[in-house]
Design goal:
Strands 3-2-1-4-5 form a five-stranded mixed β-sheet. The protein starts with a strand and ends with a helix. It is of the alpha/beta class and 209 residues long. The protein folds into two domains: 2-140, 2-Layer Sandwich (Nucleotidyltransferase, domain 5), CATH 3.30.420; 143-202, no CATH class. The protein has helices spanning 42-55, 66-72, 74-87, 116-119, 121-144, 150-153, 159-168, 179-188, 195-198, 205-208, and strands spanning 2-7, 16-22, 58-64, 96-99, 110-113.
């Protein structure tokens, strides 16, 4: 039995990341502290990530870039990401549990579990895999675009992120289909296809030297 869950659905910047996981039966699959990744501290999530990877029979992480979320739509990408994450598991699952909503076309029987990341171990594990993987990516993005403080809010809408958007406009990792991002872009009169030129990465060559 495999679980699948995503991270970054509510963010206005950065990728959507989907995790899938099969935990072994019995004591080996019982990982103390498994819970919805959102209620865990970053340090605990990192510790659990290591243990999940060590114990899982199979696990996978699928990354869907912001541009693809804009082009195809958030929910379409979410469903496609869960399909891809579950399809890459080896051994392949015989049954799938997804968090929150049903996902058709998985090729195996499946059930959507409301708040599944809080009550089902394999979904909680998938949630942590997705969340930790995405957080690491957002920290790397912070190195490229420190003016947005991605390492702090991970691309979600916060007062600090809103101020940065108003001050600098969007960068290529912002989701153009989101209202707050489009509003910020309009203030700078920057066409979406020129964002990458309008907000270049910060030059850190002097710091490195």
């Amino acid at each position: 039995m495999a679980g699948a869950d995503e991270a970054g659905r509510g963010a206005c910047a950065g990728p959507l990341v989907v995790g899938a996981c099969i935990l072994p039966r019995g004591r080996r699959g019982q990982i103390e502290g498994l819970a919805d990744s959102k209620v865990l501290t970053p340090a605990v999530r990192e510790e659990l990530y290591v243990e999940i990877v060590a114990r899982a029979l199979a696990w996978s992480v699928v990354v869907i870039p912001a541009a693809e979320v804009d082009a195809r739509g958030l929910h379409v990408c979410n469903v496609a990401g869960m399909r891809r994450a579950l399809a890459t598991l080896r051994p392949a699952p015989l049954y799938a549990l997804t968090d929150g909503f049903p996902v058709p076309g998985l090729g195996v029987p499946s059930t959507a579990v409301w708040k599944g990341d809080a009550v089902v171990g394999c979904i909680a594990a998938a949630s942590i895999l997705a969340k930790v993987s995405r957080d690491r990516m957002m920290v790397e993005m912070h190195e490229r675009w420190p003016q947005y403080e991605f390492a702090q809010h991970k691309g979600y809408v916060t007062p600090e992120h809103a101020v940065a958007l108003e001050r600098h406009g969007p960068c290529p990792e912002h989701r153009a289909s989101y209202v707050n991002v489009r509003r910020a872009a309009a203030q700078f009169a920057v066409p979406e296809n020129e964002w990458i030129d309008a907000v270049p990465p910060v030059d850190r060559s002097e710091e490195i030297a």
